[in-house]
Amino acid sequence: MARLHLFDLDGTLLHGSTAPVEISRQLGLEAEAVALDQAIGAGLIGPPEYATRVHALWAELTEAHVTAAFEGAPWLARIRDVWAEIRRNGDYCAVVSLSPSFFVERLTGWGAHAAYGSSFPAVPFTEPVDPAGVLSAAAKVLIADRLCEEFGLTRADCVAYGDSMSDKDLFGAVPTSVAINADRHLSGISTHSYMGGDLWEAYELVRHAR
Predict the structure, then answer these.
(1) pTM of the prediction?
(2) 79 belongs to a structural domain
(3) Does residue 210 register a pLDDT over 80?
(4) Is 61 a member of any domain?
(5) Is the residue at 54 inside a domain?
(6) Structural domain of residue 140, as residue ranges?
(7) What is the domain count for the chain?
(8) Cα dihedral angle (179, 185, 187, 189), rounded to 10 degrees?
(9) DSSP string spanning 35-47?
């Protein structure tokens, strides 16, 4: 039976950073984005307010900024190797993140079968962000279910990789999970744990688990 590997982005594939921080760094607004990350991490604001506030930070954002942020981000090592191996095994891999879709979707170019992020308007912005298109922890489970249906799988065939509160619902919904450089929200609910900078090493923990 095939498996579906579901990867978080911020703090998981991105080591010690998030897509909004990397994007904001290109605009000289890193400190403001870090403050927003701390606020959402502490539960002081929710995903829709977070999205609205980062959208406001990015009034001057261009595609060139997004490309520079993506290419310069602190990615874990061997992401593309892991996804190539997953494909060779007849399995599936997807990225599901609360970060902007215009950043997340670039990962299909690295070998992900699918990549989902919060729906943002096209860059450069001429429209506001629609709060209804902003993903949540619960939305990650709904997307996982949709992907399972598409690939002919069930939740029992899923492996989740994440690091924080936004992954808690998904970790609770699937039988196998890998906490990667995770915070306290995932302690005790993941089946495996990895600290380090190489995705292959995290993948090895569940590579042969069925």
Answers:
(1) 0.96
(2) yes
(3) no
(4) no
(5) no
(6) 4-14+75-204
(7) 1
(8) -80
(9) HHHHHHHTTSS-H
DSSP element (H, E) containing 186: none
The CATH code of the domain that includes 107 is 3.40.50.1000
The Cα 112–Cα 197 span in angstroms is 19
Task: Tokens for 116, please give them.
Answer: 């989902």
Q: Which residue has the higher pLDDT, 186 or 136?
A: 136
Question: Quick check: is 166 in a domain?
Answer: yes
Task: Check residue 101 and give left, alpha or beta (phi > 0: left; psi -120 to 50: alpha).
Answer: alpha
